[in-house]
Amino acid sequence: MSSLTEKDRPIVQLLLSTGTCPRCVLRFCCVGSQGLYRHPHQDLLKDLQEFLKNKQEGEGTACLDVADPPCKRVRLEHRGEGAGDVNHNGAIPQIPSADDGNAATESSAGKVCNVCLGILQEYCEADFVKKVCQKVNSADYQFTSFVFSVSLPPQLSVRERAAWLGVQQQMRNLGLPLAKDDIVQLKEAYKWIIHPQLSEELGVPADGKSLFEVSVVFAHPETDEECHFLATACPDCFKPAKNKQSVFTRMAVIKALEKIKEEDFLKHFPCPPSSPKNLCDALEIQCNNGAVFVAGRYNKYSRNLPQTPWIIDGERKLESSVEELISEHLMVEFKADSFNFSSSGREDVDVRTLGNGRPFAIELVNPRRIRFTAQEMRRLQQAINDSSDKIQVRDLQLVTREAIGRMKEGEEEKTKTYSALIWTDKAIQREDIAFLDDIKELKLDQKTPLRVLHRRPLAVRCRLIHTMKSEYIDEHHFRLHLKTQAGTYIKEFVHGDFGRTKPNIGSLLNRTADILELDVESVDVDWPPSLAD
């Protein structure tokens, strides 16, 4: 049961007489019973009319019946503030008499609310809820719960402030100050009404932690310019921002309303606000699923395949990439809008990745499908592998966002094993390269290589070659197996990069050396977990 008391009577009378809808009246009376807001609009109007007609004896309590949840009682504290406040025309707004309940409710009936602009009227009805659910169902998302969000026109905050000032003035005149903190916020009241209806229609519960979001964007072009006076009064609050079409964002308006003086506000905006001619527009009904993350390891067998699309000055250099060969299948199966690819390091276009492969993860943005069995993931992995002989994928699995951090940690902390085919200008014998096998923990100073200087900052990086093992081929060729610190530039360690990497194979052998082929044999990151075939 939720109650309105005699102290609420002047608020109800004032707001109804100035065109405020019943649900906004309850908000300004600090009624916290969620169930009461769900009553039909006309029933609430009749109940408020009865409340104005029937003065109760004693404390003058009138009850509006509602089952549950329990009510939040109005909290009014005497602040000892003076009376006699005036509106922007210099006059005190008049409260309709207690005997004039019909006149007050007739002022509100059939009009667009002067505070919520119709959001707590038209957009709480079953027809709109069905429209939202039709949009959700037609989008073909998988979800087991939902979170509902609403974007309100910023001028609603201005109108609520004006209505609040009107209420505050009248309560001061009656010696009954009102604590603004107790006013039920419009978004909160709207969700109280809409959540149960959406939940019943969609067949799943509302959950504030759900990854599936249903959102409605409201706009009211008729009153769009009502915020503009705030830019003159509080220019510091309205600054252009990237990705914002207007400086009059809701947060900027709220900030300005907190800053502007009451007398300045009343000079520019009517108090109470006037009723608009038109309802708000529901501009957009949107659905969005939280990202899904897929991880695995890939092997790259081509020396003519970049990890990511190779595009220079808008021109594509090679037809495909590791990223695209994997993601195109995931995008189709997950029905996602877009993706973001990441991996534990990267190899050059002419470098193969062998062994157990390189860990990678793909973020699938706004996927329609989110549930896959282990068997379905294996079939998806097989489809990727069957589509190209340039790559192979293993251990494909769903992971969490947090788990991806383990892959990125290993990118710089772990070791990597390489195999390099090396050419020398001067003839070599086995004994000329045998000493390389005995070198342990060789420290390098590597200045940013010339070939990556366009995308990496100039710096000298200290790296370690943990071990080397040479394999003699002929007088001008040998293969070198290296285990190195992650982040070591192997090509530059071989040819020296014009002295930018010291020491290097050329300086160690005292002859010119160059690299002909390079393979990544292992990336020692223990992630993602290996799966049984």
Automatic annotation (TrEMBL):
Its main location: cytoplasm. Its EC number is 5.4.99.25. GO terms for cellular component: mitochondrion; nucleus. The keyword Disulfide bond does not apply. InterPro entries: PsdUridine_synth_cat_dom_sf (IPR020103), Pus10-like (IPR039894), Pus10-like_C (IPR048741), Pus10_N_euk (IPR048742). GO terms for molecular function: metal ion binding; RNA binding; tRNA pseudouridine(55) synthase activity. Residues 293-524 form the Pus10-like C-terminal domain. Keywords: Coiled coil, Cytoplasm, Isomerase, Metal-binding, Mitochondrion, Nucleus, tRNA processing, Zinc. It catalyses: uridine(55) in tRNA = pseudouridine(55) in tRNA; uridine(54) in tRNA = pseudouridine(54) in tRNA. It comes from the Eukaryota. Signal peptide: none annotated. GO terms for biological process: tRNA pseudouridine synthesis. Residues 113-287 form the Pus10 N-terminal eukaryotes domain. It is found in: Cytoplasm; Mitochondrion; Nucleus. Belongs to the pseudouridine synthase Pus10 family. This is tRNA pseudouridine synthase Pus10. The gene is Pus10.
